[in-house]
Amino acid sequence: MKHIRKAVIPAAGMGTRFLPATKAIPKEMLPIVNKPSIQLIIEEAAASGIEEVILITGRGKNEIEDHFDVHPQLEESLRRSGKEALLREVVTPSQLVTLSTVRQQRPLGLGHAILCARHLIGNEPFAVFLPDDLVDAQKPCAAQLIDVFQRTGKSVIALMDVPREETSQYGIAAGKFSPEDPRCLNIETLIEKPASRDAPSTMGVVGRYILDPRIFEYLTRTNPGRGDEIQLTDALAAMAEADGLVGYLFEGERFDAGDVAGYLLANLNWARKVPRLWRTVQQYVRSHQTDAG
Ligand code: G1P
User: Fold this and answer.
1) What is the mean pLDDT of residues 53-81?
2) Taking the complete model, does pTM exceed 0.70, yes or no?
3) Pocket test residue of 27, 169, 215, 254 for ligand 1, highest count of atoms within 8 A of CB
């Protein structure tokens, strides 16, 4: 059974949906409660057995690397003042995984971003995490996909049922559900962001993928597609036809942290896990329930 040790996290996007907040701060550093959202992603990766993360970045993303590095001065000051709990919070990010970064020098699309990691992945299967997609699940979403990869030997992508009027925001997959596992879809068709009238189903792709390294071959042969960008979805569609591709309806709740409303909901979801915070939110909602909206 092939162990999945490496993951690619494309984080080169400009975060225009969050301007002006992202004028000088990478969107991946915006907090969910008290952690940058990218930390939740890397925690999910580590909890799924990932040891090495390759971050695809661009200009203005250095804070992400700093966050996952040690900070001797701050650590020493917290140690000296006996703030052990805070010290643990500060040290944890640097211990989760080994991080390398590759710069994507031109914004040629998600498929191109993945291709930038080829020399560091080599010839082994790997995971891809899109950092806008936060998933709260009992068993990490990536770990669920890794199980399916190990069972089927095929590349696996996360799916969720989306409202038909939203198909143009997702890769959409169609095929036949497996008789052995009703959550597994043997993908026959995969289309990037189809209009609702053209969508072959409402099975939307969520940003977690376990990929056979052959994907790099497909990516090098993929022409620019939607938005004139090299789309990972198009390379996966070619792979589905030739080698097979499994979609997995994962268990858990997904938040689109790349969108202001989704980001607020993600904050509420993670605040719910801190009783003191959650009581404050509930009090606030109760006292504003009659406000016009
Ligand atoms: C990307 C993928 C798309 C997928 C989505 C999930 O699109 O291209 O297939 O459904 O992530 O979040 P993006 O939202 O980055 O444009």
Assistant:
1) 96
2) yes
3) 169
Is the distance from the beta carbon of residue 192 to the nearest atom of ligand 1 less than 6 Å?
A: yes
For domain 6-292, give the fold: Spore Coat Polysaccharide Biosynthesis Protein SpsA; Chain A (3.90.550)
Q: Which residues pair with 8 in a beta bridge?
A: 54, 128
| C-beta of 109 in contact with ligand 1 (< 6 A) | no
Give the start-to-end residue ranges of the domains of the chain: 6-292
The Cα 291–Cα 293 span in angstroms is: 6
Question: How far, in Å, is the centroid of ligand 1 from the Cα of 182?
Answer: 24
Ligand 1 geometric centre to CA of 206 (Å)? 7
Distance from Cα 139 to the centre of ligand 1, integer Å:
22
Whether 234 lines ligand 1, by a CB cut-off of 6 Å, is no
Is the separation of the CB atoms in 133 and 174 below 8 Å?
Answer: no
276 C-alpha vs ligand 1 centroid, how far in Å?
35
Within the chain, strands assigned E span 6-10, 31-32, 35-36, 52-57, 98-103, 126-129, 133-136, 155-161, 171-177, 184-192, 203-211, 245-249, 253-256
Tens-place pLDDT, residues 223-274? 999 999 999 999 999 999 999 999 999 999 999 999 999 999 999 999 999 9
Give per-residue pLDDT as tens, 200-224: 999 999 999 999 999 999 999 999 9
* Residue with CA closest to ligand 1 atom 6: 206
123 CB-near residues (< 8 Å, 6+ apart): 213
**Helices (runs of H) and strands (runs of E) counted in the chain:** 11, 13
pLDDT score recorded for residue 15? 86
* Residue pLDDT, tens place only, 139-159: 999 999 999 999 999 999 999
171 within ligand 1 shell (Cβ under 6 A): yes
- Say if residue 203 is exposed, middle or buried (CB neighbours under 10 Å; 0-12, 13-18, 19+): buried
